[in-house]
Amino acid sequence: MIHDLVIKGARVVCPGVVSACDIGILEGRIATLGTALEGREVIDATGLIAMPGGIDSHVHISQPSGPGVEMADDFASATRAAACGGNTTVMPFCLPEEGQTLREAVAAYHAKAEGQCLIDVSFHLIVKSVDPVTLGQDLPALIAQGLTSFKVFMTYQGMRLSDAEILQVMDVARAQGALTMVHAENEDAIEFLRDKAERAGDIQPVFHARTRPVPVEREATHRATTLAEVADVPVMIVHVSNGAALDEIQRAKARGVKVLSETCPQYITLTADDLDRAGFEGAKWVCSPPPRDTGEQAAIWAGLKQGAFDVFSSDHCPFRFADTAGKDAPGARASFRNIPNGIPGIETRLPILFSEGVVKGRISLTSFAALTATNHARIYGLTDKGAIAVGKDADIVLWDPALQKTITQADLLHGSDYTPWEGFSVTGWPVRTLLRGVTVMLDGAPTGGTGGRHVARACPDVAR
Length: 464
Ligand code: URP
Ligand code: ZN
Ligand code: ZN
Prior knowledge:
This protein is α/β, with parallel strands linked by helices. Helix content is 30%, strand content 23%. The protein has 12 helices and 20 strands. One zinc ion (ZN) is lined by residues 183, 238-239.
């Protein structure tokens, strides 16, 4: 067989095994894994590692963020940055604006993404209201269209659902075979601490971290897994930041609850001290849950090593720092309460885990591929993606495992004006990203195409 393209000479990371083979690509799919393959075009990848293209199943792009506040990335800039960071699919959340139905929100997101994306996208939903239209009409219709996962929040005023409401949403997930994702932090406890801090004049960015301590996440994680147990559904606990929350997840699993879990680069590399910088600087690291301390980082690493986490995502939620439509929003200097939550990380997720995990010997190459691509595809029903295997989309990233870089804003393509990892040194960087066999990034430069599509998903196996 003459392939359209053959990648030769790489160490190829297949599910569970690293192999020295050629990858033969035909019509955008992996057609053959073997030796001495023939192709009309050949990429010599000697010395490189071929990995499944990264799937980042937790990103926020062009998300409505409140009056006067704007996210720093649109679909064009986010997918360019993602491709440069070794990703081939990102999964943003569709959040309805005030007065918008969920279906209208999805239509608006499609309009924003259409013709803009360098890599593939696949939307999750956010359920922030349990009215009859949302539960009875929009969710079933959207799940049938392949938007088979949705997030609910136990925190954020205006977004949080009560336990009773979460159970109603989980019941729809159960009936329709969808997966519920939960942001687990106890809003009432946070508000109690936030109010107390403000009354004491403790208004600087670091108090964002101090008013969202580990117990508020631990308690909510226990509650979320218990609600899933009551509703008899699987649940994904997103952005787990600490060992106590992970313990709750493990306990629920031991009871037979189907709990999946996600962690992110911020919880293995950053700490609350990053928020404790002079003046307003700490706002750059304000995200929820907040980064913790080195002890909690060690607990997250232990979980990653033991296979306790299913996915490693970025929770990319970019705002500009020097911008009143970003971190410096009206009121943000008067109280940490008003600082938009979220940090950029779509471009740096994979190099950070590769360097800190694979290069430092904490996790294997095959675990890396599972945590960054394969498990995301399996869990969220991206049946054509996530692995270097015959029949899958040829979404492949070539890594130079020896390339040393110091992460710096000047080199990044995301729309934010800073990176939380400024000055962080890594070994290993993606040098070429292919989406369905087409190169979309070469040597750090995006190719400028807009061949990314929205991918409808199957119902997650775990939720069937
Ligand atoms: O601070 C964060 N993580 N912002 C993004 C929204 C969310 O909760 O995931
Ligand atoms: Zn969240
Ligand atoms: Zn998020």
